[in-house]
């Protein structure tokens, strides 16, 4: 059973993605039993691997709520494959980093990113994490001969004997940047470039609804949380390890003189700059790319978590909704002490306070959007059938409406599709 302290830690952001508790139900911790491991994003990852299409649609629809992506830019995200060929239901980033223990032989530098390659590069990250006090770390270049020796050892799959003192932290730091720079594409991928530029530009609105020059950090974090879920597994794993290292490096800037901004200048070219961007476009977007990298470093302890509403939605996907008739039934499905409990209670209380007319209006809005704004396709027909099953008296789902034949590019308004459907379903589930 999780203690109240553990519950609060999860929501106040003092832990990362996995919470470990040694406490048992009787309160003891010295009985020899293994620790309890809780992953707040368990159901999100379960949805990713068991229902990848539903997962991708859910993430994309929420991203388009936050940033406007025209057709071509949206298609780039839509074509992204969130799984890797060897991913399993228990796989992905949140399965822990057990793969870092194996170091299969194979060339690492200049090759596509693999788990075996990350396992080798992880040795550099571990060594650097013990030398964060070195002044000018990542800025002062290392010795080229020692770097070449280290590169050859990594490519051979060797365990590096850093304890021998043969390599200086500056050698290792420079080689880490070289590894990232030699990847066939940036760690954040070419496809995500436009989305990252849009996220960097998110700003607050004033009381009159006009944009200000102040960045909207909360929306930026939320958008990054969603976008990073679409990265290939290997990219996401290495990005998490790298940003953790840079975050802790910046925390010791009083010793190493490397702030998040300074580190961003060192790593943006290797992590986010696209390979095929011409000099003019790069110059126009240089400030955004560098500031985006600095933002990733500063908020690295938050951006790899799933938004709370996504956790709740994913959990409900695996609940036996046919057996839920009231809020009490919904609560019985939650594990005692689960951090999802308070979110579910708030959601249930909120939706029960709405009237039946709200449900009908939401369904009408969704139906109008599907019939008038989606191109004719099997997905459109499927949605109309689903809406027909969910219809209530007075909802025009069963009207004999001829769908428009004009095709529209997917727009920001379609981003609300899943949220509206989820709200309507949750209302019907929890309404007595």
UniProtKB/TrEMBL annotation:
Domain of life, source organism: Eukaryota
Gene Ontology MF: a single term: GTPase activator activity
Biased composition (Polar residues): 388-404
One GO term (biological process): regulation of small GTPase mediated signal transduction
Coiled-coil intervals: none
Residue ranges of domain Rho-GAP in the record: 111-304
GO cellular component annotations of the record: cytoplasm
Region (Disordered): 372-411
Transferase listed as a keyword: no
Alphabetical UniProt keywords: GTPase activation
Pfam family, one: RhoGAP
CDD domains: RhoGAP_ARHGAP19
Function summary: GTPase activator for the Rho-type GTPases by converting them to an inactive GDP-bound state.
Protein known as: Rho GTPase-activating protein 19
Gene name of the record: LOC107679052
């Amino acid at each position: 059973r999780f203690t109240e302290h553990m519950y609060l830690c999860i929501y106040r952001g003092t832990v990362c993605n996995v919470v470990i508790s040694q406490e048992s139900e009787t309160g003891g911790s010295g009985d020899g039993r293994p620790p309890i491991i809780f992953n707040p994003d368990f159901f999100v990852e379960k949805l990713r691997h068991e229902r990848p299409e539903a997962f991708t649609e859910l993430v994309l629809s929420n991203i388009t709520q936050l940033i406007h992506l025209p057709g071509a830019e949206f298609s780039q995200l839509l074509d992204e494959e969130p799984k890797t060929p060897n991913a399993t239901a228990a796989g992905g980033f949140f399965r822990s980093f057990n793969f870092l223990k194996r170091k299969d032989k194979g060339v690492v530098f200049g090759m596509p990113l693999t788990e075996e390659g990350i396992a080798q590069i992880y040795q550099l990250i571990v060594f650097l994490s013990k030398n964060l006090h070195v002044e000018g770390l990542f800025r002062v270049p290392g010795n080229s001969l020692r770097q070449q020796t280290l590169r050859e050892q990594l490519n051979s799959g060797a365990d590096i004997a850093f304890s021998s003192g043969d390599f200086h932290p500056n050698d290792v730091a420079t080689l880490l940047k070289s590894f990232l720079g030699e990847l066939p594409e940036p760690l954040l991928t070419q496809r995500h470039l436009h989305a990252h530029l849009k996220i960097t530009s998110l700003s607050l609105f004033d009381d009159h609804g006009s944009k200000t020059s102040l960045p909207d950090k909360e929306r930026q974090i939320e958008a990054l949380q969603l976008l990073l879920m679409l990265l290939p597994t290997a990219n996401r794993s290495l990005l998490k390890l790298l940003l953790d290292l840079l975050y802790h490096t910046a925390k010791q800037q009083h010793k190493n003189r490397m702030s998040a901004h300074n580190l961003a200048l060192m790593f943006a070219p290797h992590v986010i700059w696209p390979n095929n961007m011409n000099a003019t476009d790069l110059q126009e977007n240089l400030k955004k790319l560098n500031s985006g990298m600095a933002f990733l470093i500063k908020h690295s302890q938050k951006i790899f978590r799933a938004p709370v509403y996504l956790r709740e939605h994913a959990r409900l996907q695996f609940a036996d909704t046919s057996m839920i008739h009231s809020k009490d039934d919904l609560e019985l499905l939650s594990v005692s002490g689960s951090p999802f409990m308070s979110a579910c209670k708030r959601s249930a209380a909120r939706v029960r306070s709405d009237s039946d007319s709200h449900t009908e209006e939401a369904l009408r809005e969704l139906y109008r959007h599907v019939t008038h704004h989606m191109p004719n396709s099997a997905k459109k027909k499927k949605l109309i059938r689903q809406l027909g099953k969910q219809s209530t008296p007075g909802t025009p789902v069963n009207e004999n409406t001829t769908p428009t034949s004009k095709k529209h590019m997917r727009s920001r308004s379609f981003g609300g599709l899943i949220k509206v459907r989820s709200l309507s379903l949750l209302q019907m589930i929890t309404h007595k």
